[in-house]
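ARCHIVE CARD
SHELF: 3
SLOT: left
DATA:
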Amino acid sequence: MEKGKMLLVSLGQGAGNIVDGLLSKNSRYNGLFLNSSLFDIKPLKNANIARNVYIYPGTDGSGRDRNKARDMIKDNANSIGILLRKYPITETIVVFTTMAGGTGSGSIKTFIQIAKKALPNAKVNVVAILPSLKEDELAFKNTIECWNDVNSIMNLINDVKFVDNNKRNTYKEINNEVIESLDLSYNITGIHVDGSIDNKDSFRINTADGSGLILKLYDGLKDAKTAVDLAIKNSVFVQPDVYDCDYLGVNLKIDGYDPYEVSKLFEVYKSTYITYNDKNNIVVLGGCETPTESIKLIKMALDDKNQRKLSRNKKRSIMIDLDSDNDEEIEELDILNDNELNNLFEDNYNF
């Protein structure tokens, strides 16, 4: 893919960290940071308020309120559309968001609709970050609503990659892995006498309609299948239910795993591209079915929290007897009915 024709857009704080990391990896990417809070932008090295940052006017965060975020972006639709038209040669827009939050989660649907009108010839990819199963009820609820928003406009989207926050211990580890994997995927090109992948091939793989997956194979394992199985297990991306795909890109170290043995492990319906390099073993699947298991787990976690909340008996007041040796019964106060209460007021307050 041609980096100068890619526009990486972050919606919200969590997504901003990933776009910032990718811009640090390769300055040829174009980056755009959209947020409702200037405070979220300040730590980012590659965010320039005068050049590639858009803060919704008069706002100071969304408070994880998706409806508030949706209203913000709708109020700023024209300005954002004008901003996107400043990137007329864009071939691929990659939209990043966390699904559990407010600003990105609530605005992604509207942003993609704006983007397709502003740059109708550009492909739109999505990288959406799911929460871990340790998150709270609001995170799960926002995620499911965001999932439905994304799926409702799937006709406007090409490639979707979902990130699984359960696969590492910290957000920083997740972000670093996503940044490295995406950069390798976008740079899967290679020239070799036994096979080459050019920018057009990479574009085709990385923007295929459907869910995408990036696998990094470790060196030194006994065979290609073992390497792929371990890569699947360690991947931070949500895995598809089946590993059928439209396009497969394989770029392996010279004299390492046999790329043809790797390609046999996947059902490929359109084209397989193979090349070699000196540093990394990368396999990219484009055009897989949308994965469902992870979102089902989040729905189950939400249902469980709701069930426990319904069964909760919350006590707000408890009277404590200071005299623990006092066996006398505590005198109970007779509760007045409404008529007795009215009479009480009438007897004491005659105006």
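SLOT: right
DATA:
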Amino acid sequence: MSIATTLPRYGDVEKGLQLPSLELRITRRDLVRYAGVSTDCNTIHWSDRAAKAAGLPGVVAHGLLTMAMVARIVSDWTGDPAAIIDYQVRFGRPVVVPDDDEGATVEVTAKIGEKRDDNTVRVDITARFGGQSIFGRAYAIVRLA
């Protein structure tokens, strides 16, 4: 997928426009690195035993890591992460990350859900892991050129 080189123009964007899809891979290595920089070292993010004791099927990705990675579908489209003026998700299901070299795959799609009068659009985002949505609702508000 190519990344936009200029901010999309408001006049060129219509409700329903599909953004290029994105496939993300999250590995245990990503979890360790994120834990280090975020200081979120909760054992459910690195220990299968702790995750299962907490009622989870296995080690799960940090919610904020997943949220940040998913936002890339919008920043790739705009070519400018600063164009995202609001981003919200409602967490629904965890992403279980196996202890292997493949990790977990999250499939991300997005479309323009609303075009507003102030040169902004609402981008509705869907992220799926194992065929199921991981967010109850996810959207970004983007200011266009």
